[in-house]
Design goal:
Layout (H helix, E strand, L loop, with lengths): L1 H18 L7 H25 L2 E2 L2 E11 L5 H20 L3 E11 L3 H13 L15 E4 L3 H9 L5 E2 L5 E3 L4 E6 L6 H8 L3 E10 L17 H16 L5 E3 L5 E5 L7
Parallel strand pairs: 2-3, 2-7, 3-4, 7-8
Antiparallel strand pairs: 1-2, 5-6, 8-10, 9-10
């Protein structure tokens, strides 16, 4: 029943986005990012098991995500749900309990979309029949533009709370950074966020192909600045020997692994 309500809400968000021209992540891109989440999750579990860093059959895992571009919280919700699904699957298949502490920080500069995001996140509560989903204590949206948001994180001004309602403090390193904000500023976002990704973490940039124009011969006036800035971002990576890979399905995702940034 809870799963049916979840899926119904997701369908409603998708329909709203379509009718109101709100950009949300495409299905192929979503599938790719979910696979990335599986990789990160499995790595974290393996690290704990290898080091036997748990007692009384309980494993403690921190999973920190930073997202630039909340919109209506569609991606925040489906990716958090994916991590919770991984937790449930792990506990079913193993005689171990997983204490999973997810902190999903996300920003949206548009006040109207930010307020809709808050409503969508708060919908998943015990009051609405969700006993296993309580996104309010996991997803933390901020009504800030991406540059200010990153600046505040690096200065320790962004605070979140634990499930015990105690100040968790500022988060300085992230396992996943998902960037889906102003496309013209992707290079700037990269230069700022490469300092706060875990060595074992991953940075993802959505819509890197921008309708296929970035690697095409597009030079129209309307989107020329965005296309040129995305090209400049990729050229910067190439010129500085920063390894990356691109998913060419949907509108493209560019992936950079944290481990290759340690000496850049």
């Amino acid at each position: 029943m809870e799963e049916e309500k979840y899926l119904k809400k997701i369908e409603e968000m998708e329909q709203f986005a379509k009718e109101n021209y709100v950009p949300i992540i495409k299905k192929d891109s979503s599938k790719y990012i979910k696979n990335v989440l599986v990789q990160i999750f499995n790595r974290k579990i393996k690290e704990k098991l290898d080091k036997k860093q748990f007692e009384e059959s309980v494993i403690d895992i921190d999973f920190n995500i930073l997202e630039l571009g909340t919109a209506i919280a569609y991606s925040s919700i489906i990716f958090t749900k994916e991590i919770l699904n991984l937790k449930d699957k792990f506990e079913r298949e193993n005689e171990l309990k997983l204490n999973l502490n997810i902190k999903y920080l996300t920003c949206e500069k548009d006040s109207e979309r930010y307020n809709l995001a808050i409503e969508n996140i708060n919908y998943f509560s015990k009051e609405n029949g969700f006993n296993n989903l309580n996104f309010k204590n996991i997803i933390y949206p901020y009504n800030l533009d991406a540059e200010k948001f990153i600046e505040n994180i690096k200065k320790g001004k962004i605070k979140v709370e634990t499930n015990k309602n105690e100040l968790y403090g500022s988060l300085s390193k992230f396992d996943l950074i998902f960037i889906d904000a102003n496309k013209s500023a992707y290079l700037k976002y990269f230069l700022e966020t490469k300092e706060i990704i875990q060595e074992s973490g991953i940075i993802l940039f959505d819509n890197i192909l921008f309708n296929g124009w970035v690697f095409g011969d597009y030079n129209e006036k309307k989107h020329r600045t965005i296309v040129n800035n995305l090209r400049n971002f990729i050229n910067y990576l190439d010129n500085n020997n920063i390894e990356y890979k691109i998913l060419y399905e949907a509108d493209g995702i560019l992936q950079i692994n944290g481990e290759i940034l340690q000496f850049k």
